[in-house]
Design goal:
single chain, 328 residues, alpha+beta, Mac-2 Binding Protein, 16 strands
Length: 328
């Protein structure tokens, strides 16, 4: 009991120290605001007021058009990529908490930004500068602006990561990248996965490849679901384009999923992934259990032989019963 009391006293002292130690000049002396932005300390947080045409929590980014209430943009994150989703409110840019952030929210945000669909979304640690304007955003999918969706209220949030978002225009991506299943049987629903990228056909590594990834490929090719996938469909002879694919399941193409950079891998061609897709739409009342890994040809022959043996034994039993019954 005494230890618990001491713990809470220390926490209180620590928190009060954080609040009282340091002034606006102390924090702002580090010049966190770029491009001549004005630094102020509000409620223990550093805020940057950007000059005209600059935006972002640190005033890193430039635009020729002045921002409007509820406007979105993708600001530079700590990784250097423009992926941190920010919204403009009360003359300041701020981030969006990733608590409860869903695909519907991401779709509304991408459309507001002028893109057709979502590539991926996630979270990144808040860098302790700037406002967190929105949290627990709950869009229905038909809203024209993210600020039209339900949320906790402007500036109301709990500890969380900032939303990151990558959008793209589907037609532009699909015109540059093609996908096919290559085989020697003449069937377009099964074979080695091949991707045309940068004018060259290449394969996909099977490392960490799962049923969700296979589903995205089958759906992209016009089929319903995968019934088998894995290595063993043959070996590619070009570049291994993709590795460590991580789809969420809603993507319209495998290239829209998270993956390692193009051509970056530690795979060999005997690890190239192949897929067999179900070549018709499965009805809602049908049961369907996908095969997670493609069975070898020898195993298939074993199953066929086993079925023949069972049928033969069954037929023998029927014949013996008929003979016994006729003699009886």
């Amino acid at each position: 009991m005494h230890c618990l009391l001491i713990y809470f006293i220390l926490i209180a002292i620590f928190q009060s120290t954080i609040l009282v130690v340091g002034t606006s000049d102390d924090y702002c002396a580090l010049r966190p605001c770029q491009n001549n932005g004005t630094c102020t300390l509000i409620n223990g947080r550093v805020h940057c007021s950007c000059r005209s045409s600059y935006y972002g929590t640190r005033c890193r980014d430039y635009t020729a058009n002045p921002a409007k209430e509820g406007q979105l943009h993708l600001a530079s994150s700590t990784t250097g990529r423009k992926e941190r989703l920010e919204i403009y409110h009360n003359n300041n840019w701020g981030s969006i908490c990733n608590s409860g952030f869903s695909i519907l929210n991401a779709e509304v945000a991408c459309k507001q930004l002028g893109y057709s669909t979502v590539k991926h979304y996630g979270g990144i640690k808040h860098d302790e500068i700037g406002y967190i304007w929105l949290s627990n955003v709950n869009c229905k999918g038909y809203e024209s602006s993210l600020s039209d969706c339900a949320h906790l209220g402007w500036g109301v949030h709990f500890d969380c990561f900032d939303v990151t978002l990558t959008c793209y225009n589907e037609t532009e991506l699909e015109s540059a990248i093609q996908i096919r299943l290559e085989n020697t049987h003449g069937l377009n629903s099964t074979g080695l996965v091949q991707i045309l990228y940068n004018g060259k056909w290449g394969s996909v590594c099977s490392q960490n490849f799962d049923y969700t990834d296979a589903s995205v490929i089958c759906r992209h090719l016009g089929f319903s679901k995968p019934i088998a996938y894995g290595p063993g469909y043959g070996k590619g002879n070009g570049t291994i384009w993709l590795n460590n694919i991580r789809c969420n399941g809603y993507e319209s193409s495998i290239t829209a999923c998270n993956h390692d950079d193009w051509g970056v891998h530690d795979c060999k061609h005997d690890e190239d992934i192949g897929i067999t897709c179900f070549d018709r739409i499965i009805q809602e009342n049908e049961s369907f259990t996908p095969i997670r890994q493609r069975r070898s040809e020898s195993y298939k022959r074993f199953l066929a032989q086993e079925q023949v043996c069972v049928i033969f034994i069954y037929c023998q039993s029927v014949v013996k019963f008929l003979i016994f019954d006729s003699n009886g």
